[in-house]
Amino acid sequence: MRVALICLDKPGAQEVRLANRAAHLDYLNATGVVELAGPFLDGGAMTGSLLVLNVDTLEVARDWAAGDPYAKAGLFASVDIREWKKVIG
């Protein structure tokens, strides 16, 4: 199943994002479940993340999200996890 994660950064957390970016990208690559990922932008500044995972259950997606170095560093104000169906692309 595909699952979309919509993660919004806490205000003023750019330094937290940058300090944990390399670990976050390593995690995305190492786990093997990320189909696509990228930051939300506001005037060029990163303000959140959109990720699509291919996992067996929503629980696996929740566990994956909890293990993300960004989440562990307290970057996100909110994380919305939803089952998602790819139609185009």
Summary, kept brief:
The protein has 89 residues and is of the alpha+beta class.
Got a strand count? 4
CATH architecture: 2-Layer Sandwich
Radius of gyration: 13 Å
- Our count of domains comes out at 1
Strand content bin? 35-45%
| Helix coverage percent | 25-40%
Helices and strands: which structural class? alpha+beta
Terminus-to-terminus distance: 16 Å
Number of helices: 3
Could you name the CATH homologous superfamily? Dimeric alpha+beta barrel
CATH class type: Alpha Beta
Main pleated-sheet profile: 4 strands, antiparallel
How is the CATH topology named? Alpha-Beta Plaits
What's the rounded overall pLDDT mean?
Answer: 97
User: What order do the strands of the largest sheet run in, or round the barrel if closed?
Assistant: 2-3-1-4
The sequence of SSEs as H and E is EHEEHHE
Poorly predicted runs: none
Keywords summarizing the entry:
single chain, 89 residues, alpha+beta, four-stranded antiparallel beta sheet, 4 strands
Secondary-structure blueprint of this entry?
Blueprint: E1 2-9, H1 14-31, E2 34-42, E3 45-54, H2 58-67, H3 69-72, E4 76-84
Antiparallel strand pairs: 1-3, 1-4, 2-3
In words, what does this structure look like?
This protein has 89 residues and is α+β, with helices and mostly antiparallel strands. It has a single domain, classed as Dimeric alpha+beta barrel (Alpha-Beta Plaits), CATH 3.30.70.1060. Helices cover 36% and strands 40% of the residues. It has a four-stranded antiparallel sheet with strand order 2-3-1-4, with helices on one face. A hairpin with a 2-residue loop joins strand 2 (34-42) and strand 3. The longest helix has 18 residues, at 14-31. The protein is globular, with a radius of gyration of 13 Å. The two termini are 16 Å apart.
